Amino acid sequence: MAEKTRECPSCALEGPSDASECPYCGYEFPGPHPRWQVWTAFAVAALLVWPLLRLIDHLF
Ligand SMILES: [Zn+2]
Fold it and tell me: Is residue 12 scored above 90 in pLDDT?
């Protein structure tokens, strides 16, 4: 029998396993693409692109 609930690490209450956040305390479960991870990827990409743009600007 498959578990359809999961325990919230924040408030320790059982919530639906398909929910993206805890219905009791609002804790955001780590999903495939959490918001912070998207922004971190965006920040890393910007940090990689910025010196490249500076270099191109220096060359021409
Ligand atoms: Zn909770």
Answer: yes
